[in-house]
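Appendix C reproduces, verbatim, an entry submitted by the partner laboratory led by Prof. M.T., so that reviewers can inspect both the input and the predicted structure.
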Amino acid sequence: MNNKSPNRRGAGRNEKSFKKSFQNESNKKSSPSKFNKDLKDKKKFNTSPSFLRKKNAKPIEKKEGIRLNKYIANSGICSRREADLFIQNGVVKVNGKIITEFGYQVMPGDEVFFDGRYIRPEKNVYVLLNKPKSYISTTKDEKARKTVMDLVANASPYRLYPVGRLDRQTTGVLLLTNDGDLTKKLTHPSHEVKKIYHVTLNKKVSVSDFDQLLEGIRFEEGIAKVDKVSYIEGSPKNEVGVEIHIGWNRIVRRMFEKLGYEVEKLDRVMFAGLTKKNLKRGYWRILTELEINNLKML
């Protein structure tokens, strides 16, 4: 696939590019002039030191195996934890022999059967979607509403899953993949993955409410606060940029609603360093190797 020519399924529409700079207002504490441009900074890798080996020393044998539970999970059958239960119950065979050993290593050339069916790991696929309105961020919907899977149906022969969710009316950056380890990493609170939103409200946002967003607002889950917030340069004062790492359900909408605002538009313009630059609404593309490596380095 040519990454420079995004594929598309479903109707999309042109969108105005998000203005990256934010205007500094009089209250310096609550409205910084611009978000830093660290998205463009490339991570530098240190070369690994070489190790000396004594003459005639035996070469170190590399273990090329993969744990059986991971092998099953990578085949799209179930999670690793569930795989352990199936292994314990004798559902899995390797080379015709039932394996019940935890930690068993599957080696290259081994044949693995799950409940009588031959399985093999899937290739990891990473898809970036510029989500439009009216699509649900789930793999299926019991009410038969449109889901993001309808838009990326041709992106991969493997089953993909959204990394986190955007509510039905929220637009913007959404990552889909079959890499369970990366999904867990990007959605776990401890990694504090950064997200930036362009929020359009029904009225001008006051500087005092900027302070409140930065100090935190109490909800049932705890206290939610934004990392940065500011007006968007060149736009009306009812449009603001918000940087946040909390992944609670609909948290950006809920914070503004608690302060008495109505969110008219909510667009995620950045997630974990990924942006929707040159990607029209409703279109998708495969991530580059550099983007994948950067995600794994977070």
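The first strand starts at residue 7 and ends at 8. Additional entries are available on request from the coordinating office.
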